[in-house]
Amino acid sequence: MAYTSAEFLFIFLPVVLLVYQLTSQKWRWVVLLLAGYVYFFSFSGLLVLVLIGTTLFTYGISVGLQHFGKEHKKQAKRLLTFGILVLLGILAYLKYYNFFAQNANVVMGHLGLGEAFTLRKLILPIGISYYTLQAIGYLADVYWGKIVVEKSPWKLALFLAFFPQIMEGPISMYSQTADALWEGKPITQKQLTDGGVRILWGLFKKMVIADRLSIPVQIIFNNYRQYSGVVILAGAVCYTVQLYMEFSGGMDIVLGVGRMFGITLPENFRQPFASRSASEFWRRWHITLGAWFKTYVFYPVSVSGLVKKWSRFGKKHCGKYITKLGVSALALFPVWLGNGWWHGAQWNYIFYGMYYFVILMLEVALEPVKKKLPQIPFLSVAKTWIIIFTGEMFFRAKDVAAGFQMFGSIFHRFSLTPLFDGTFARFRLDYCDWIIVLAGVFLVAVIGRMKEHKICVHETIAGLKTPLRWCCYYGLFFLVIIFGAYGVGYQKVDLIYAGF
């Protein structure tokens, strides 16, 4: 029951909204909590017990942190470390055990030691990568004194199990959403309208654009040895567009559902393709994941004893430039290793993280040179696009070797002929499909450009007279209904980031 499915949009969500509104404000949090567990159960069955167990464990650790307080800082730190290691241990075992076991067996096989680890059939609960990070963030915030420990385990449970966020996030901090979830404010007509429009916009991105592009992307990446030049390049571009339209569209749906209940969830995208550097791109793409790593990994490492020792040594023996490079490397490496691993147990995800680590280190290293050169926005954006498309190609490739082969094949027998000889028509999309995709991308780009200039399209439309306003709303509705990639000739496309 993905939140793009008819079951969710026309049965589950309306029922939850109705029951929520009919329930007294005091108990509306119960409706949201039960909805979260029911929604989780619809995907993972009894693995909902893992979520419940994580909630109880997190609550217990947080109470222990409060008990130690500032007077027993060492004990509190040990307890926090224990809590984080347990949460990460559960995630690592369920998500990465077979990856490590398989690679360890390969190494041991080369050494003539035989296979020491048995691969296991492990079932991964939906959303574990998201609620685990939220739980760790909550414990860290309690330890740092940013928030007061929550006395009610039910409120913490609701924070970790709010049903729109379970599948793909966004990754919230406790201070951002917990109170609003608990208050149970009544639903208003404006909330329903605003949320419904946001949901429609997300469905447009997902069903009209992303689901169409999934067809050629799958064909090209599954048969990459048969293609070269512009076809591989087009595959990388199409996948990047597909990923953005699907993930940002999914976030539009999630934020729209939250808006219906009066919950303002954190934004996860901010026109990332307007970025002029890789670092700016990651401040605009999957914002909540980047914010989590920045808050709970980058900053703690930056003030760690190791970094302080290097800073003192570097300033004394190496100069400011080398010292800055060293500090940046020490702080960024765990962030990007973790970012790559978070996406899944595959070497190409780890490579993807290290790819951006190298790119960002190059940006730091070349910063003095960059300041002396004239800045041409168009060239900066174009350079960033090349970085993005290349990174996403490795991200989507079957493995790292396939990624390198695809990258090399772009420059092999490069010709624009496939654009005009009917090659792309053989990817199960006709010319009408490609026109719809291009028109949809153009519309998204125009609205994104308006947002960059601080023009809120939704507020502008909401300010129109009622007939014009509802013409826009119904127009968006019929665009999804008429041009959505569903029915005969199209296959159901699973949410990409739900797999992470």
Give the integer mean of the pLDDT values: 91
How would you sum up the major sheet? Answer: none
Percent of residues in helices comes to: over 70%
**Structural shape:** globular
The poorly predicted ranges are none
Structural class: mainly alpha
Cα Rg:
24 Å
How far apart are the first and last residues' alpha carbons, in Å? 17 Å
Order of helices and strands: HHHHHHHHHHHHHHHHHHHH
Tally of DSSP β-strands: 0
Helix count, DSSP H or I runs of 4 or more residues: 20
Strand fraction: under 5%
Structure description:
- With 500 residues, this protein is mainly alpha-helical.
- It is 71% helix and 0% strand.
- It contains 20 helices and no strands.
- It has helices at residues 6-22, 28-44, 48-68, 73-110, 128-144, 153-161, 174-183, 189-222, 230-260, 278-284, 287-302, 305-317, 319-343, 347-365, 367-372, 377-396, 400-410, 431-452, 457-462, 466-483.
- Helix 4 (73-110) packs antiparallel against helix 5.
- The protein is globular, with a radius of gyration of 24 Å.
- The mean pLDDT is 91.
Spell out the blueprint of helices and strands:
Elements: H1 6-22, H2 28-44, H3 48-68, H4 73-110, H5 128-144, H6 153-161, H7 174-183, H8 189-222, H9 230-260, H10 278-284, H11 287-302, H12 305-317, H13 319-343, H14 347-365, H15 367-372, H16 377-396, H17 400-410, H18 431-452, H19 457-462, H20 466-483
